[in-house]
Task: inverse folding
């Protein structure tokens, strides 16, 4: 089974339980429910993605629902007590990117001030940009990569929140 765990070996100093992405569980969910040829926008939005700037909210909803489903089927595992709904995903239009390769920003809703940069939002690595075209199916090969990067970004925010909480309790 293809598993990606966080923290990686280079980050074993944390006491936070690891997060993980299980690619095979996502693939089983898609196969077992005959979703391979179903368009993501049909499955998550009930139809096509709106075009232009106004449509980004629909894209963000799709990402949140995708992450929630991945967690519900066991493909995404986060440390307790964190749940999929604790995170928000935002697409900010970058002029240097094509329409469907915009950077995704991940936010921990309970601590929106956290993040590496970008006004308290953690930008995912450039390889995890939003690559879902209107014709993207549930079995598209880039979805596991995107989910994996969403887990990594969520874990980094969890680590930051735990460090901030620990720092505050040490000051009391």
Result:
């Amino acid at each position: 089974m293809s598993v990606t765990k966080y923290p990686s070996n280079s980050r074993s100093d944390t006491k936070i339980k690891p997060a993980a992405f299980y690619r095979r569980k996502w693939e089983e969910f898609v196969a077992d429910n005959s979703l391979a040829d179903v368009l993501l926008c049909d499955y998550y939005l009930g139809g096509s993605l709106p075009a232009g700037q106004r449509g980004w909210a629909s894209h963000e909803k799709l990402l949140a629902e995708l992450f929630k489903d991945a967690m519900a089927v066991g493909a995404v595992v986060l440390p307790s007590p964190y749940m999929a709904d604790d995170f928000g995903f935002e697409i900010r239009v970058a002029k240097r990117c094509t329409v469907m390769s915009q950077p995704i920003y991940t936010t921990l809703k309970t601590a929106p001030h956290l993040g590496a940069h970008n006004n308290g939002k953690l930008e995912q690595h450039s390889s995890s940009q939003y690559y879902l075209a209107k014709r993207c199916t549930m079995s598209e090969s880039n979805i596991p990569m995107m989910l994996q990067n969403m887990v990594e970004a969520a874990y980094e925010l969890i680590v930051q929140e735990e460090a901030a909480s620990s720092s505050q309790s040490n000051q009391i």
